[in-house]
Amino acid sequence: MMELIERGEQESLLRFDEGRKFITYMVAGKRQRYTDPEEQVRAEIYLRLIFDYDYEAKRIELERIVPRRTPSDLADIVVFSDDKHKSPWIVVECKKQEISDAEFMQAVEQGFGNANSLSAPYLIVTSGLN
Fold first, then answer.
1. Predicted TM-score of the model (pTM)
2. For the purposes of burial, counting CB atoms within 10 Å of the CB of 89, is it exposed (0-12), middle (13-18) or buried (19 or more)?
3. N or C end of the chain, less CB within 10 A?
4. What is the CA radius of gyration of the chain?
């Protein structure tokens, strides 16, 4: 994963503070706490979407508000099929690597609800890719 993160830094997709406690997603304009294990998973899948699956960074939004869900419910990552972020294509729900099967199933339900509310045809639920 370190090679992936380094490539993301080299290509100015993300930046870390001096102590690597915070990560800034440059295109999305979001700063998050990288010491959070779930954020480490999100950073990895974000970069894999760009480098491995050729999605454009400008079509990826982080922390998207989900209508018709709990008022504070946010989708971890939403990939759009358009530059204006009007047509959600994929919703990604990220969880830290060490979770139980029950917690993963809860994440699947949360992700499905978010994808349904956003009318996205695809959902990815991940607790790490390694």
1. 0.92
2. middle
3. C
4. 14
